[in-house]
Design a protein that fits this description.
The protein contains 15 helices and 12 strands. By secondary structure, the chain is of the alpha/beta class.
Length: 378
């Protein structure tokens, strides 16, 4: 769809929102009616306004079936900025319920959401779990080395501390090096690579991770020899990125380095596959959806520490494929326990990686074929 003209930014907030909705409504309507009539419309929610109304209208006009794929609720996301008691939040909740009951079929991403859809709006749904795309998978050591070399040209934390020293491997990175025979190998003195991805929004409190890492730093400064240095990479873009970046710059870390890159669609899954541990701070506005970032990490066989919320156990099995924490103290303890003895020994990380192999074997197209395809073939 074409972008809304910039004049709306000069309007009061509510009028700007209304102008945006009206523009999107007519743009989407024009696009849909210009298509050949399909047998089904599959619409992902959120966003709910105005897509559900427009698709429902066109479906009725053409007598086609509207199927809603529920990934969360728009009204709970709206409540993060407006508050739960705002009239627009009440309207959005009614609006989503109205179309949930009138859809030909509903898919949703958790058992908890399926139950909630039925209890709240008497809408029946089929659970279609998110699964990783094929691009999220294990990669070879050579691929990791090439990625670290590429990133080191822009982000100094990936560079070898030996760069520029006479007689040292000029191809080395902070994680990898070349053996005398020219083969890539992991460095024995490498730090652990911890990764988290975010859209830098209010539903992820990154101060939890920073406080956990401050505790890690404190343990290291007391002379602990069983823990490695850390490189913490936080990927993504969003409104709170500068706020947390400034917070990081104001910390005095000696054993932990940070990088907040924006990665290409090709490099992001490779970096996940090269990491040692993932951290997820997604709490869900509804408490009923699952973090896609964890799905992607699991697709690469990466163990995760994830903050607890209602239905997380449908994805992260505590002490089986990862760990679940409640606060920064628990996260700090988990990071330290998992990385004790790294890189020589990391038994729990290896156990989690082994347990993730079954999850890695089922990809998105398999899940779609097994769960959803039969409905569209009716």
């Amino acid at each position: 769809m074409r972008d809304l003209p910039r004049f709306h930014s000069c309007l009061p907030r509510l009028l700007s929102y209304a102008a945006k909705v009206i523009w999107q409504m007519f743009s989407l309507l024009f696009m849909l009616v210009s298509l050949s009539p399909p047998t089904h419309f599959l619409v992902q929610n959120p966003p709910a306004i105005p897509s559900l109304a427009v698709v429902w209208f066109v479906s009725g006009m053409w007598r086609t079936e509207m199927v809603i794929d529920w990934h969360n609720y728009g009204y709970t996301i709206l409540s993060l900025t407006l508050g739960t008691g705002h009239s627009l939040v009440y309207f959005s909740k009614w609006y989503e319920g109205f179309f949930a009951r009138r859809a030909s079929h509903n898919f949703c991403v958790t058992q908890a959401m399926k139950i909630h859809l039925h209890q709240q709006w008497n809408a029946k749904a089929t659970v279609l779990y998110d699964r990783p795309a094929d691009i999220f998978q294990n990669i070879s050591l050579d691929e990791q080395h090439s990625l670290f070399q590429k990133l080191s040209k822009e982000y100094v934390v990936f560079s070898s501390s030996d760069d520029g020293k006479e007689g040292e491997d000029t191809e080395a990175t902070v994680f990898t090096e070349l053996s005398p025979s020219g083969e890539v190998r992991l460095r024995k003195d490498r730090p652990a690579l911890l990764i988290s991805s975010t859209s830098w929004t209010e539903d992820e409190d990154f101060s939890i991770l920073l406080m956990a890492l401050e505790e890690y730093e404190s343990v290291m400064r007391k002379g602990c020899r069983d823990l490695p240095k850390l490189i913490c990479v936080i990927t993504g873009k969003g409104p709170l990125k500068e706020y947390y970046s400034e917070m990081i710059r104001n910390k005095d870390f000696q054993y932990i380095d940070f990088s907040t890159p924006w990665l290409t669609a090709e490099d992001y899954p490779k970096l996940i596959a090269s990491a040692d541990l993932g951290v997820c701070l997604h709490t869900s506005s509804s408490g009923l959806d699952l973090p896609m970032k964890v799905v992607d990490m699991f697709g690469c066989g990466l163990p995760v520490c994830a903050i607890h919320f209602n239905c997380l156990a449908e994805l992260v099995k505590h002490e089986e494929n990862g760990l679940v924490f409640q606060d920064e103290s628990e996260l700090a303890s988990q990071i330290q326990n998992l990385l004790t003895g790294f890189p020589k020994t990391s038994m729990n990380l290896e156990k989690f990686r082994k347990n993730l192999e079954l999850f890695q074997s089922k990809r998105w197209h398999h899940s779609w074929k097994d769960t959803a395809l039969s409905y569209f073939k009716k």
